[in-house]
Design goal:
- By secondary structure, the protein is α/β, with parallel strands linked by helices.
- It has seven helices and 14 strands.
- The strands form two sheets. Strands 6-5-4-3-2-1-14 form a seven-stranded mixed sheet. Strands 7-8-9-10-11-12-13 form a seven-stranded mixed sheet, with no helix packed on it.
- The longest helix has 11 residues, at 207-217.
- It is globular and about 55 Å long.
Length: 255
């Protein structure tokens, strides 16, 4: 099995943290782990970089991690916090002189064409736009030297794609996991999974629901992501089981 590295580019909710309009204590803001960009992940493989989702801060995330190339992209679903950075992919199209392969479900390909119609049409000479080669997400994608297994979970009323690479799995935005997918998530070293807030949410696992899934799947280590400002790194991790931690922006995980 080819190995690589997963980088949590962003670990926050659709609002990001700090959230606009909210006053936070100096102690909360002083911890950089409490500053959360919108959820995204990068898989660094032996032959390239595979990006999962393009949130509004994608450019800042990739600059922060010194990522100079993205070879292919997976869009888990087309809510704003997962696609509104896609325009910035034009820089890679310009520098590398090629279209970017974007893998997602057919329904989300329609959304991308609607949101970014200029990425598929003609433009005047000298105008730089992103160019997307939209492709159906397969069950197994060989990309960047990695075998990326792609599966569906439910995010409220819509499907959301998750991935497993070797013994690492990444699941953002989830409210239900089928038994078939749970079978695919056995024997994990690391599971990164949605735990949006403390109270139940119609479209996401909340804290107790996520802990129940972790207890069922039994990964060696689990990281909670898509976190709201209810999670304070200064105090909350002390209450977690030893194999459960809070993800944070820039977290690096061997895969």
């Amino acid at each position: 099995m080819a190995s690589g590295e997963a980088i949590i580019l962003g670990s926050g909710t659709s609002n990001g943290v700090p959230m606009l309009g909210v006053h936070y204590s100096p102690e909360f803001l002083a911890n950089p782990k409490n500053c959360r960009m919108r959820s995204s992940c990068l898989l660094k493989g032996p032959t390239g970089n595979f990006l999962i989702d393009c949130g509004p801060e994608m450019r800042l995330q990739l600059v922060r991690e010194s990522i100079f190339s993205v070879h292919e992209v997976l869009i888990t679903h087309t809510h704003a916090d997962h696609v509104m950075g896609m325009d910035d992919l034009r820089s890679f199209c310009m520098v590398e002189g090629r279209e970017l392969s974007i893998y997602t479900l057919p329904r989300y390909q329609q959304d991308i064409r609607r949101i970014f119609p200029y990425a598929f049409g003609s433009v005047p000479e000298g105008v730089i736009v992103p160019r997307f080669d939209l492709r159906d997400a397969p069950e197994v994608l060989e990309s960047c030297g990695l075998s990326i297994h792609i599966f569906e979970v439910q995010h409220g009323s819509v499907p959301c794609l998750g991935v497993r690479v070797n013994d690492f799995a990444y699941i953002t935005d989830v409210s239900f996991i089928s038994e078939n997918v749970k079978f695919q998530l056995q024997n994990l070293d690391v599971l990164v999974i949605d735990a949006v807030r403390h109270e139940p949410h119609p479209n996401h696992f909340h804290f107790d629901a996520t802990l129940a899934v972790i207890a069922e799947l039994k990964p060696k280590m689990a990281y909670l992501t898509h976190l709201s400002h209810e999670y304070d790194h200064n105090t909350f991790e002390d209450s977690l089981p030893p194999n459960v931690r809070l993800a944070f922006d820039g977290l690096s995980i061997p895969i």
